[in-house]
Structure formats: structure tokens, C-alpha cells
Amino acid sequence: MWSSLKAEPLGENRELNMIRGTRPFSLSAAARAVLGRGSWGGDGGTQQLTLWDVAEQIRKKECRRVVVMAGAGISTPSGIPDFRSPGSGLYSNLEQYDIPYPEAIFELMYFFANPKPFFTLAKELYPGNYRPNYAHYFLRLLHDKGLLLRLYTQNIDGLERVAGIPPDRLVEAHGTFATATCTVCRRKFPGEDFRGDVMADKVPHCPVCTGVIKPDIVFFGEELPQRFFLHMADFPMADLLFVIGTSLEVEPFASLAGAVRSSVPRVLINRDLVGPFAWQRRHNDVAQLGDVVSGVEKLVELLDWEEEMQTLMRKEKEKVGRG
Ligand SMILES: [Zn+2]
């Protein structure tokens, strides 16, 4: 059931979630004002958790197995267009290749007929063009403090790696440009081997069999990376879940938010209220809505990690300067 990356409606899972989840409950605005300390929601009289509470739990080391789910919203502050959305800058660039429809760029059938549009995207997203931002470095700091169990990302820009989060802490659910596979003999190569070709607008070929090389980005209908199955151990083990910058619209990624134990706080940092935070809220859910970087900054402030963030970002910037 995890084999397709095509966006699927959430209806089916909703039924499943209703069985194991909480009942919908609504409080009047007046009751919320009395009961809720936060600005957001209430839950049948149970104290609604706030971002401050979560920060306090992290500071007291009550949470030390943090699982993070991240999406395009953590990369747009780095200047990366949300390229799966029609109308974004990148798709306009692709018009010159006359692709029949935007999704064709991630379709194998189309790739084998005409790999050029995909490699135009690859050239744009190959490591080196974009820099991680505050949100990425917050996740790096979480790792440095030994608190990050795993980061599940939908992004294919590789900025989590650039920010210094080791690959073994990462599940790049939609694949990566860091590695590539020959479409004919299936040999694996480091993505770096083909940087020259990609930058020179050449379709890379296998040095062994001359087959076309495809970076390990997950196309529609392709299997998710094996690492994705780590979720079966990670989510039940998590003691805190962050959902940052994702609309939770693409399955199977979307359903993961419901896979943590019901006692585990879930924190959404996102422009809008999405997924189970909107329709299957738990009393220990927290939503920090609005600009993603501002939301992360707010959390860092509550954690009192501002200085460490500044130090980390300064060091990383120097590294880039030398590189
Ligand atoms: Zn080959």
C-alpha cells in the first residue's frame, strides 16, 4: 500500500483513524477562552498543550526521541520553488521543453522518451545551488543535541544533508540526488559523478553499459526508498513529533502523523492548519501557524537556544565561505 506516490484522498485513512483516534469535539469560543491557555483550540476540558509546554518538555529532557516530518515549506525560505505546484517558476522554465503536463517530469514513461526536462530540474536542484535556512539548522541542532531520532523529508533538494544532518538520521521519502542508478544495468553511483554532465545540460550515461543514469528521485509509481520502512519502528518509539512545512497531502507520507502514540505531543509548524491537526485533533496537538521560519524562531526562543543557533549558523556559513 506504500508503493505509489500519487496524491491520494485522505478519506480511506480517515476511517482508520476514527477507529483508533479521538472523537471530534468542539467547544464554544467562550469555553475556549476560559480553558485554553493557547490561542488555538480546546479538547473537552483537557488542558490544551502549548508550544511553551513542548519547549519545557524538551528542556527537561522529557522528550529525547524526536521524529520530524518536513515538506516544501522548509525549503521555500531557501528560494526553492514548490515545483510540484503548477504555476511555480520552475514549471515555467520547463515550458521550453514542451512537456505535455507538469507531472510528466516525474513519470518514467516520459523520462525514457525524453529525459531532458527532468535533468533541467536536476541541474536546478543539484547540491550547491541553494543554501539551508534557519529551519534546516534548527533540525541540525536537534541532532547535535542527540534529540533527533529521525527526519522524514518530502524534499529532494538535499538541504538536510547540506545542513549537516547525517544520512543515517534521514529518510528522504521522495529520493535524493546524492545517489544515482543506471536505468539499464542498475549499477549505483554517487550523484557527484554526474555533476559535470548535468551542469553541461548533458543527459548522463552509465560508464559501464552506456544506459541512461537516473538520480535516485522517486518517480510516480516507483517504490519508496527502503529506508522509508524505518517508520514502522520510529513512529511508535517517538516521544515528540514535529510536522514542519508540509500540507500532509501526499500519501503515504500524510498518514504517518497518526502513527505516533496518542500520548505523544504533535507540533505543527506550518502556514495553515492541515491533516489530522485540522480534522482529528488531539489534546496534545500544538499548531504554530503562519510563516514557517518565524514559527521555528519562536520555538528556538522558548527553548532558549538562540545563541547556539547563531553559533551554528555562523560556523556553517564560514564553512561555505571556505568551500
Ligand atoms: Zn549501466
Automatic annotation (TrEMBL):
One of its GO terms (cellular component) is nucleus. The keyword Transferase applies. Binds 1 zinc ion per subunit. The active site is at H174. NAD-dependent protein deacetylase. PANTHER family: NAD-DEPENDENT PROTEIN DEACETYLASE SIRTUIN-3, MITOCHONDRIAL, NAD-DEPENDENT PROTEIN DEACYLASE SIRTUIN-5, MITOCHONDRIAL-RELATED. Belongs to the sirtuin family. Class I subfamily. It holds the Pfam family SIR2. NAD(+) binds at residues 72-76, 82-84, 154-157, 246-247, 270-272. Its EC number is 2.3.1.286. Keywords: Metal-binding, NAD, Transferase, Zinc. Its cofactor is Zn(2+). This is NAD-dependent protein deacetylase. Residues 44-306 form the Deacetylase sirtuin-type domain. PROSITE patterns: SIRTUIN. GO terms for molecular function: histone deacetylase activity, NAD-dependent; NAD+ binding; zinc ion binding. It comes from the Eukaryota. Zn(2+) binds at C182, C185, C206, C209. It catalyses: N(6)-acetyl-L-lysyl-[protein] + NAD(+) + H2O = 2''-O-acetyl-ADP-D-ribose + nicotinamide + L-lysyl-[protein]. Coiled coil: none annotated.
